Amino acid sequence: MLDSMTFDKTTHTITYAYTVKGVLDDDEVLNRNSPRTLLLQEVRNSTNLKLYKEAGYNFCYVYYSAQRRGKQVFSATFTEKDYR
Fold first, then answer.
1. How far apart are CA 72 and CA 70, in angstroms?
2. What is the pTM assigned to this prediction?
3. Rounded Cα–Cα distance for residues 64 and 19 (Å)
4. How many CA atoms are closer than 13 Å to the CA of 75, on its beta-carbon side?
5. Quick one: what percent of the chain has pLDDT higher than 90?
6. Who contacts 55 (Cβ-Cβ below 8 Å, separation ≥6)?
7. For residue range 22-57, what is the model confidence (pLDDT) as tens digits?
8. What is the CATH number of domain 2-83?
9. d(C-alpha 15, C-alpha 84), whole Å
10. How many C-beta neighbours within 10 Å does residue 73 have?
11. Residues 6 or more apart whose Cβ sits within 8 Å of residue 77
């Protein structure tokens, strides 16, 4: 579930914060599914991010546990170098 989206003007980074529930709310299960690889593929293929990618923005994804309130379970940041 998407909790928030923020933008840091100085670093040109869009950050998406999510809360994971259920089966994915387990560090082992989450990391077994190669979230960094899947997210990078999504960024590369997303037409919604086209203008931001053309402008060289960074994309940060942060996932928090619903069960362990506030515990960060995964984070990944992609730069222009990653998605080009």
1. 6
2. 0.90
3. 5
4. 7
5. 76
6. 12
7. 888 888 888 887 899 999 999 999 999 999 999 999
8. 3.30.300.250
9. 19
10. 22
11. 13, 58, 59, 60, 61
